[in-house]
Amino acid sequence: MTDFQPADPQWEARVRASFDRLGIMKTLGARLGKIAPGSVEILLEYNEGLSQQHGYFHAGVTSTIADSAGGLSAYSLFPVGRAALSVEFKINMLNPADGDCLRAVGKVLKLGRTLSICEIEVYSQRQERESLCAKMQQTLFQVAART
């Protein structure tokens, strides 16, 4: 991973506050895990309301936490007054998301003035075992933050 330097010394507080404003994360019951400049982890415990017909986490849920992990990863490097909007993403479901918890890890691959690229891996955790269940590549557009 490339070592990125955040533009704002208060980046961690800004990322945490941004996560807290994500209504979908509250709806899903997701929580913020480890964060570092250019990298954010989101955790989501399983419940039946997040499942598809076979009892796995639904692909839409997997995609949602991946999208937010990537967006917050880029946001951690942005200057004050800027925000991230997803422009595009491609996700591959590699294995069933069959576990007690999902862990999405977003990492910035390229930070640009307007467009940034992130890579997100989503792991399904069951007891002590973890397996890669999805991989996303995402493009984000840096915009002025809404006040």
What's the CATH H-level homologous superfamily?
Answer: Hotdog Thioesterase
According to CATH, the fold-level topology is: Thiol Ester Dehydrase, Chain A
Helix fraction? Answer: 10-25%
Residue windows where pLDDT falls under 50 for at least 5 positions: none
Terminal CA distance? 32 Å
Q: Give the C-level CATH assignment.
A: Alpha Beta
Count of individual helical segments: 3
Radius of gyration (CA) equals 15 Å
Q: What assembly state would you assign to the polypeptide chains in this entry? A: single chain
List the helices and strands in order: HHEEHEEEE
Strand order of the largest sheet: 1-2-4-5-6-3
Computed structural class: alpha+beta
Proportion of β residues?
35-45%
Question: What features would you describe in this structure?
Answer:
The chain is an alpha+beta fold and about 150 residues long. The chain has one domain: Thiol Ester Dehydrase, Chain A. It is about 20% helix and about 45% strand. It is built from three helices and six strands. It has helices spanning about 10-20, 25-30, 60-75, and strands spanning about 30-35, 40-45, 80-95, 100-110, 115-125, 130-145. A six-stranded antiparallel β-sheet has the order 1-2-4-5-6-3. Strand 4 (about 100-110) and strand 5 form a beta hairpin. Helix 1 (about 10-20) packs antiparallel against helix 3 (about 60-75). It is globular and about 45 Å long. The mean pLDDT is about 95.
